[in-house]
Specification:
The structure is a homodimer of 413-residue chains. With 413 residues, chain A is α/β, with parallel strands linked by helices. Helix content of chain A is 37%, strand content 17%. In chain A, strands 4-5-6-10-11-12-13-14 form an eight-stranded parallel beta barrel, surrounded by four helices. Chain A has a three-stranded antiparallel sheet with strand order 1-2-3, with no helix packed on it. Chain A is globular. Chain A starts with a strand and ends in a 10-residue tail after the last helix. At the A-B interface, helix 13 and helix 14 of A face helix 13 and helix 14 of B.
């Protein structure tokens, strides 16, 4: 296996760690937040934009690329890296999650999943072997096992059956891989049941994977439930391998999970919100279309070093958004996703913390540094888990990130 | 008046000339093709993109900015240059053309025009004085007199009345201006009637403007008619001042007009076509969605030095277009609009010719250079005026540029 993961520092006061991962397409540092490039492009951005914004690894969706333009086509064209002009670390998911979430008529069997294309209604089947074959054709540096994302809520029996299916599929994925320059991650399922999560981890570890993901969270459960699952699962995973919390999430979620020892994240939140005109700042959400910004000459966030904040006013961004200009989506995405262009003079440790925290706007590195208590400085608040009062589901996630309720240590008033 | 125009070279075999214009926001070279930034942004591009593509001057539409976000607001925010982060030469039109073309209920009087906003139906009036006031608030380096774009066809009497109105308005524009750091251009009208055009030029010259535009062409007349009007009008204009052919056009039109001594152009053609997936190449139009490009690993135009051609395949661009990705519009625009990033090693003379010709894809500078016969080299074909067979109107313009019927000297087969 080509990938090498090394831990650079561990926090004294939490399970947080800083790491560095070497892949066939270069290095990425952890904790890493991956921008989502669903159809082989992070919407509105070029790879050069992403690099300038500090992105080291991005994610692309196997389901979408399988349907269009097709994995065989991408393989013929030199693989996904070359196709999309991203010559850096890249991860593809297995496609399973989209099969379930974008299709109403899905047939699951021991063999695999059958579904209809959301594009043209054509019928397709994906088996574990097929999921690996597709991902080997795409050629990402990290690929994922096909899993069943256990629905929420699910009874113990249903969650167990689902978890066993994931284990069966994981084994078949492992056995069918042919490319050894890619890392293959197993995905931990088991619903909200600690015993099932534990059994799943043990079985996956016995099979042996290059890294481990936690799946089946952020599916409608409460924040406490998610924290519980993550905090129970992470300690069971090998400490010297990458840990990836799939589809998470809000800055709040990310900071908590980093404290628990998670290394990798992905979420459409910063990019999708940007396109909807919702911008992250350390003081809270900023809905750019609001009339109050019509004459506002200040940047989205004073002091922010991103390209957008360096060059454009809220008034201009509001104008672009109301005029439905393409540039609005691009400039908003640049702000929401990244803040720390190379050469900005901060040390890597700070940059990583900053990137993470600022992806959701929980304040600046400088401010946090004054509260440093361990090797990770004050980047990761020591207390977390404060109950989020809003309801469950996506809206809750959105509301939370946008209302920017600060973590206890960051309360400004 | 701040603006200074100098002619660097004149062609021996035609009226073509190379020039350099100094403005309060720097220099632009002529012949110049201005990308259209309708609402204070060239769609999908940042100013940095535009500069990298070789753009030295761009155009923005007064009508749109007046309605949204409002010229007073832009003035308060430091002017249009600052608002849109374009610190280089900038031209605004008077708004008159959009008043006529975007509104069905326009009331024209000696006083000015009344119209309804295409955004919300609100009623507005623009007088010559108001047109100048708005453009002074926006603060472009070159502003335009309010004119009436004479419809086509128009009888001699109608065209004469219209031309007299334009003259009246032009005088009022000249008399109402307060900012002397902006250049004010007069616009020649007169329909398709040489005597009216001549009278119009004479009257405008007597009033005295900083440059002269030819309006009322590309409004449905035949190509021959347009060539006729331009070739009859240009010699009447002062040779030491800028000449601007408004709303033109296709590469064919541009090359012909340059030969006749025109210095400036603007058109939405390259940018709008790009967003519609129609790409310019020297061999003809390339409709990127076509199935034949699905597996095509080559760039849009082999040898093209634009960012898009350097980094992406036709197959990828086709995928982005079919997937309706924002990046498709951006990458296509980059290709269609500009080809010659700074530092590409060509001399200014070549670059200008190249930029012009390549905006429509009539071949490379190198190929043309072998046919050089004058100081402008072979950039401008010596014979032109070959009849375009397609019908009149916008579709004709589109078809012509896209079918890329070569000029006589450039015929490849």
């Amino acid at each position: 296996m080509f990938m090498q993961f090394e831990i650079l520092k561990s926090d004294k006061n939490s399970s947080a760690r800083l790491g560095k991962c070497h892949t066939a397409h270069g290095v990425f540092h952890t904790p890493a937040f991956m921008a989502v490039g669903t159809q082989g492009t992070v919407k509105a951005l070029t790879p050069e934009d992403l690099r300038e914004m500090g992105a080291e690894i991005i994610l692309s969706n196997t389901y979408h690329l399988y349907l269009r333009p097709g994995h065989e086509r991408i393989r013929q064209l030199g693989g996904l890296h070359r196709f999309m002009h991203w010559d850096y670390p890249l991860l593809t998911d297995s496609g399973g999650f989209q099969v379930f979430s974008l299709n109403s008529l899905v047939k699951i069997s021991e063999e695999g999943v059958e579904f209809q294309s959301h594009l043209d209604g054509s019928r397709h089947g994906i088996t574990p072997e097929k999921a690996v074959e597709i991902q080997e054709a795409l050629g990402a540096d990290i690929i994922m096992c096909l899993d069943e994302c256990t629905p929420y809520p699910a009874g113990h029996e249903e969650a167990e059956r689902s978890m066993e299916l994931t284990l069966n599929w994981s084994r078949r994925c492992r056995d069918s891989r042919r490319r050894l320059d890619q890392a293959l991650f197993g995905i931990v399922q088991g619903g909200m049941y600690p015993d099932l999560r534990k059994r799943c981890v043990e079985a996956l570890r016995e099979m042996g994977f290059d890294g481990y993901a936690i799946g089946g969270v952020s599916v409608g459960e409460s924040k406490e439930k998610m924290v519980e699952v993550v905090s129970q699962t992470v300690p069971l995973l090998p400490s010297d391998q990458l840990r990836y919390l799939m589809g998470v999430g809000t800055p709040f979620d990310i900071v908590q999970a980093v404290q628990q020892g998670v290394d990798m994240f992905d979420c459409v939140l910063p990019t999708r919100n940007a396109r909807n005109g919702m911008l992250f700042t350390k003081r809270g959400r900023l809905v750019i279309k609001n009339a109050r910004y019509a004459d506002d000459d200040s940047p989205v966030e004073p002091g922010c070093s991103c390209y957008t904040c360096r060059n454009y006013s809220r008034a201009y961004l509001r104008h672009l958004y109301l005029a439905e200009e393409i540039l609005a989506m691009r400039l908003n995405t640049v702000h929401n996703h990244g803040r720390d262009p190379p050469g900005h003079g901060r040390r890597p440790v700070e940059r990583m913390g900053q990137n993470l925290l600022c992806s959701g706007g929980f304040g600046t590195g400088r401010r946090k540094r004054t509260r440093a208590t361990g090797p990770l400085g004050g980047f990761f608040p020591q207390k977390a888990g404060r109950e989020e009062k809003s309801g469950a589901g996506e809206n809750c996630v959105y509301e939370m990130i946008l209302s920017k309720r600060p973590l206890p240590l960051e309360r400004e008033s």
